[in-house]
Amino acid sequence: MLRPCWGAALAPRRGLRGLATAAEYLRGLVKVDYEALGSDRTALRDDEQPLAAVRTFLELLGSPHKELKAVCHVVGSKGKGSTGAILSSIMSRSGLRVGTYTSPHVVSLGERVLIDGEPREDDELLGYFRAHEPAVMEAQERTGWRLSFFEALTALSIKYFVEAGADLAVVEAGLGGARDATNVFDPPGLRVVVVTPLEREHTEVLGDTIEEIASAKVGVVKPGTPVVVAPQSSLALENLVAAEAERLGCGGVIRASRECHVAYSVSSEGARDYMFALGGAEAWEIRDCLVPQFVAENARTAIAAAAVLAPGFGVEIGQADVAGALRGSGLPGRFQVLGGGAAVLDGAHTQRSARVLVDSLLDLFPGRPVVFAVAMGADKRPGTFLGELARARPREVVCTAFEGSLKEGGLLRAAREAGLAASAEADFGKALEVAEARAAEVGAVVVATGSFRTVREYLLRRGAG
């Protein structure tokens, strides 16, 4: 059995006090970051030790997972972050104090740990991690198992939400479901499970078939817990998810495709009017909303989940709550629109995510020119990604690089092979200047994409203003 323990002694490392950020400190403390490796602990599919280690750590923290007043657990393949953010905002606007746990972060670790939509300050998290370092070390010593970065952050965030007095915690699962580090909640605290759209992904971890993946993701469902199922790619898949939830003894399946309906029309360039109708309630019209259609689809699921949660808190969900949540639904690096449409930041890095990005650009900015600034991780295949970007008919693709990325020359060759007008700049800052200058000439949208690191590099240089 593979046990990622580096040596018998699990004593605290020296030098952690000098680390600059909360993320660096936590990585130095646990020494295992499967996210950075592009892998996941659950690749050890026949071993339940990791989840047991998380539970041991939580016990040492005082079992905060049992103290949370209410939890919504969000699992799925696509749209978890957007759905969770919209749900959190709706419930916060209804008067609740809401903690949100999500991933990944783009610039600061605080983007993963939010109270009422506000990221926590890095210095605050750094101090919090330092205060709980002894519990991290004791958990590892007791189990003989090094907690991963995600596992440690999950447990510490749950503890943080309890101490912050959260009425509700919206917790997004990581890669998996049943064996994910977030699968520590039980009724009555676990109020609802939300299953966002599923697809074949991470087959080495979750299974080779969509049936296996559905079983892994839906495995967080506990007996008696209601399950909200997002619209899936097919009715057959939606039925499969519902059947798996019922097999686990859920407290009823709520299908967002039936409970919440959405329609939209074009109001102006870069904006849409949306109409939401929940069950037999009055329809809610939200005008001039600068969000793409896929976000509105995620909002359907969030609204259906809010309708499940609201009665338990004695609150009602209204148009103002939904409108405010939808308008403020942007997440860093997930079709993040800046400057009223001057720039778009998107962490897309696969052919599928590039397709969604281009569809959203064509939806919100029809007829408007596009200039891409692209940098991609060294393990990515740029050909199919850039081939999808070609559908946007960009005026230019400026290929660039960051530390550890594909070289800009390789991207340039792939872009030209895809029939794109392209140039290359080794320096990321210079590449942005070139893209912005070209966009200014033709009134184009600058789109920075290819990885979340690309988004990070943009934000570090330009900010989100």
UniProtKB/TrEMBL annotation:
TM region positions: none
Gene3D superfamilies: Mur ligase, C-terminal domain, Mur-like, catalytic domain
Pfam families: Mur_ligase_C
Name of the protein: Bifunctional folylpolyglutamate synthase/dihydropteroate synthase
Entry keywords, A to Z: ATP-binding, Ligase, Magnesium, Metal-binding, Nucleotide-binding
Domain Mur ligase C-terminal: 333-452
UniProt GO molecular function: ATP binding; dihydrofolate synthase activity; metal ion binding; tetrahydrofolylpolyglutamate synthase activity
Similarity comment: family membership: Belongs to the folylpolyglutamate synthase family.
Entry GO terms, CC: cytoplasm
Entry superkingdom: Eukaryota
InterPro entries: Folylpolyglutamate_synth, Mur-like_cat_sf, Mur_ligase_C, Mur_ligase_C_dom_sf
